[in-house]
Amino acid sequence: MLTAAQVLAQNNFGDTRTGGLAGPMGLFLILVLGTATVLLIRNMNARLRRLPDRFPSQGPSPDAMKSERVVVDPTDRSTSP
């Protein structure tokens, strides 16, 4: 039976393991991630090119809303039920 010291003393590094897949699997993952990144960049560039140069305004700008003052009459009860 192996003791803890004997298990820790064993050399499980380097070329002592057979059938190692770390190198080829790492290369495969790097290639997949690189391909996915290139495709995502191309997709986003195509979407950005299709956007209009300017968007139509959808309401008053925040600066215009700050300059306008709305006076509310506290005695007006026409909106309450």
Keywords:
3 helices; 81 residues; mainly alpha
- Poorly predicted ranges: none
Q: Roughly how many Å is the radius of gyration?
A: 34 Å
Percent of residues in beta strands: under 5%
Give the number of helices: 3
Order of helices and strands: HHH
Number of domains: 1
What is the terminal separation in angstroms? 87 Å
- The shape, in one word, is elongated
Structure description:
This protein is an all-alpha fold and 81 residues long. The protein has one domain (4-68). Helix content is 51%, strand content 0%. It has three helices and no strands. The radius of gyration is 34 Å and the shape is elongated. Keywords: Membrane, Transmembrane, Transmembrane helix. Residues 65-81 have a biased composition (Basic and acidic residues). The chain crosses the membrane at residues 20-41.
Brief synopsis:
The chain is an all-alpha fold.
Write the layout of secondary structure elements.
Elements (H helix, E strand, L loop, with lengths): L3 H6 L12 H29 L11 H6 L14
